[in-house]
Specification:
Radius of gyration: 26 Å
Helix content: 25-40%
Largest sheet: 4 strands, mixed
Number of strands: 12
Order of helices and strands: HEEEHEEEEEEEEE
Number of helices: 2
Shape: elongated
Structural class: alpha+beta
Oligomer: single chain
Distance between the termini: 81 Å
């Protein structure tokens, strides 16, 4: 007959070792996930720091190219100091931000403005103040369909295919983790105002 006390001690020790081992595995997995998840934010912050340094280093009438490795699913936007829709982190100055999300051509209004970026930048983004009165961001030209994926039937019953429009994006979408060459230039305007222009 086996000793029940020895079996009980053996089972308790095995259970404790299993629980400690499982806790260590879960902790290691959490640390790896945290490091990976925060890597995009760290890379985005590095990009915006580079953009801020270059924008503040060049003089009026000068331009410089900045090559950065994109962060997939992030975009660069800018707001002038008199733009009422800028993120709160810009205070009362002009700023350039990198924010988590992607802006699509259908998100742009007819007047070239958009609603989402300030909200996205407030939630998950990094903004840097720049020494300029105005900020202009010129992204790629993108096409989109005005009627979703299909056409529409008019009042006469005739089918009309969807209209395709092209818009120059007022943000620089980083839809891939490729290298992006961004031109940073300061343009002297009338009345002594300065415009910071970022373009791809």
């Amino acid at each position: 007959m086996r000793n029940k006390k020895a079996d009980l001690v053996n089972n308790v020790l095995t259970t404790i070792i299993a629980v400690v081992g499982l806790a260590l595995i879960l902790y290691a997995a959490w640390r790896l996930y945290s490091a990976y998840a925060n890597q995009d934010a760290t890379n985005a912050q590095s990009i915006i720091n580079t953009m801020e340094a270059r924008a503040n280093a060049i003089q009026e009438g000068q331009s410089a190219n900045v090559v950065v490795r994109g962060v997939k699913g992030w975009f660069i936007a800018g707001w002038s100091k008199d733009d009422k829709s800028r993120p709160e982190s810009c205070y009362f100055k002009s700023c350039v931000c990198i924010c988590s999300g992607v802006i699509r051509p259908g998100d742009i209004r007819a007047d070239g403005t958009f609603e989402q970026p300030p909200i996205l930048c407030q939630q998950k983004g990094f903004c840097r103040l720049v020494d300029a009165n105005k900020v202009e961001v010129v992204g790629k030209s993108e096409s989109y369909s005005t009627a979703g994926s299909g056409g529409a039937f008019g009042s006469s019953g005739a089918y009309s295919p969807p209209e395709t429009k092209s818009v120059v994006m007022p943000v620089i979408n980083m839809d891939q983790s490729n290298l992006y060459e961004i031109k940073v230039e300061k343009i002297k305007g009338s009345g002594g105002s300065t415009t910071l222009k970022l373009s791809v």
